[in-house]
Amino acid sequence: MVSPNDLIATARELAGDLVGPPPRQTNLRRAVSTTYYALFHCLAENCADMLVGTEAINRRESAWLQAYRALQHGALKARCDNTGRMRTFPAEIRRLGEQLLYLQPRRERADYDPSITLERSVVIRDIEETELRIHEFRQAPERDRRAFAVYVLMPLRNQ
């Protein structure tokens, strides 16, 4: 399984710290991308856990994996950008959604725009902010995390 905490640790290693020699731009680019994927995998794991279950003994692994892999980047972005619906979730979930909306275009630029130059201090701040948002999200009530999983995975119908 891909651990969001391990991805955050990897992003930190790639970005280095503020006192050492500056990292290569390729390392900063990978740190940005890895930070985004830490958040994405946190949400994918939440979807699978909330819809299929957290204990392997009580779930079918194929169903858990299907729920995990069902999360799509574009749909997730659109749902997090729906401020009316996002307002119905607690602050911990809204802030994670806001962080996703901030990170996704940064990840795309880091991965696909060869002309950008990244600042180590900004990348480190983004890593720290993402780690905090993941921690807060995990503290949100289970019923709200389950509702969010349904919201980001299932088609919306007029209600």
What is the structure about, briefly put?
By secondary structure, the protein is mainly alpha-helical. It has helices spanning 4-15, 25-51, 61-69, 73-80, 83-86, 91-112, 120-139, 142-153.
Spell out the blueprint of helices and strands.
Blueprint lengths: L3 H12 L9 H27 L9 H9 L3 H8 L2 H4 L4 H22 L7 H20 L2 H12 L6
Helix pairs in contact: 1-2, 1-7, 2-3, 2-6, 2-7, 2-8, 6-7
Written overview of the protein:
The chain is mainly α and 159 residues long. The chain has one domain (4-153): Up-down Bundle (Four Helix Bundle (Hemerythrin (Met), subunit A)), CATH 1.20.120. Helices cover 72% and strands 0% of the residues. Helix 2 crosses helix 8 (142-153). The N and C termini lie far apart (36 Å). The model has no long low-confidence stretch (mean pLDDT 95).
Attribute tags:
single chain, 159 residues, mainly alpha, Four Helix Bundle (Hemerythrin (Met), subunit A)
CATH C-level class is Mainly Alpha
Structure summary, number of beta strands: 0
What is the CATH topology? Four Helix Bundle (Hemerythrin (Met), subunit A)
Major sheet, described briefly? none
- Low-pLDDT stretches are none
| Integer tally of domains | 1
Whole-number radius of gyration? Answer: 16 Å
Return the CATH architecture. Up-down Bundle
Distance between the termini: 36 Å
